[in-house]
Amino acid sequence: MYWKPEIEILPQPQLHILQAQRLQDTLSRAANSPYYGELFRRQGIAPEIIKSVDDIRRLPFTTKEDLRNNFPYGFLTVPKQGAVRLHCSSGTTGNPTVIFHDNHDLSSWADLVARSLYCAGLRDTDVFQNICGYGLFTGGLGFQYGAERLGALVIPAAAGNTRRQIKLMQDFGTTAVHTIPSYLFRLHSAFQEMGLDPRKDTNLKLFVIGAEPHTDAQRRRIEELFGVRAFNSYGLSEMNGPGVAFECEYQNGLHVWEDAFLTEIIDPDTLQPVPDGEEGELVFTTLDRHAMPLLRYRTRDLTRFLTGDCPCGRTHRRLDRISGRTDDMFIIKGCNVFPMQIEKVLMRYTEVSTDYLIELETVDGNDDITVKVELQKEWFTGNIEALEKLSRRIANEVRDEILVSPNVRLVEPGSLPKTEGKAVRVIDSRIP
Amino acid sequence: MIAHQVSIFLENKPGRLEKVTAVLKATDINIRAMTLSTSSAGWGILNLLVDHPETACQKLSQAGHPAVLREIVVVSMKDRPGALHDMLSLLAQAGLNIQNAYGTVLGDNKEAILIIDVENADHVQKVFESAGVQTLRAEDVYRI
Fold it and tell me: What is the rounded distance in angstroms from the CA atom of residue A86 to the CA atom of residue A63?
């Protein structure tokens, strides 16, 4: 039933005691990092101020900007030699967000992912094909080690090459797949093109989907197309990656692993907790990370706690699907993108103005991104080739920045909304 | 004197071309010939041969359109099969690449003109002249 029953069905009051102890430990460790050490001294914070989990409110928040400003080692609690791996966000403009792990962290992360996969129904008899980017992206190695820890046979298929993915599924009798939801639609088309029906011609029984916003209707459609149950995964690189919150067999929200992540939902304006069941910004504190603990990290993701007990018996509270963001970040093809990243590329080009518009659409079942940018009147020479070359150069540079290839569309001056005030930068008309 | 056409950047959207013609109408500019080349990326370039290119370009630019004057070479030829081919052969032999070209038949149906948009109009003009082909002077082009 459970991967770690002593934790997964621990009654909430006892879970709170465990959290308070771990929070104290986390504070002691955090004090060793240059950033928190200095902050604690200034604000008079010591592990002793934590008497219960509610004392979390006495601690400062941590934001992505804090991570960037203290890049790369400001949050490390151990000498650099003590860390064994890092993962970091995409992007070449500005500092990326980087997270360091020591061996303890990697082991407990693998355990959380194993617990998550087990919760969704994966067993050691399964063949698990991990279709996502390896490398700096956390979904690759995160699921790899988690599924190995569980004892499944793991195929590190990585992303792309759809026909080969299908061949791997057939050759090794893949029973479970992790990937982003939009890829499953492409995969299904490829099955059809090859004259195959995944419901009959594969052993698939379980999908793990995440890293990209999707609706329940989309999930049901995927389940119908493949005859497979699909489970929602939630994670973020700042909290290791996958293995933060996961759906169980009841598919009624995501159990957030409260022994490892102290979870708050706050009003993003007042920064006060919202009542259970109300929507707010998700805030996490790591409770079991040694090399780089984070306190009250503001995810900018909006969601709510689902009230009531889950029939699966797990006591860890459930999160609803992420409903949006408090900032302008969007996710395309599994990549997190801030409009600012695109803006920075455009600013290098005197041929175009700083007004731009990002349009996200669904084309043939896939995410498609178009960047519209105004041509500067003065730069126009009437040469069609020069304009095409300009579009290509911008597209390549944006791709290097956000890791997704955009269409770049030059438009007439003055035809886009002005930068003053809160200009709408992103129009997302993707079919959920 | 080298003749000029007006080149205008346009989005490939309903009503865009009409905005340009509205400016020309208001300024009493007469269009002699035109072509519209579109890219696959949703925009195009409108090339206009008009009676007063400087005025047209200035007014369009004032109205917010990216518009420029581009040098062109205009040659007249007999309105008969093969005439265009003979003309283009000269350019091909000289290794000259055409950015854009368009033609129109004149009112009397005996003569046609070819408007050629090349990077080096001066040079092209000389190629034609040395082959004995008459190129039109700017003032004649605008009077067509």
Answer: 19
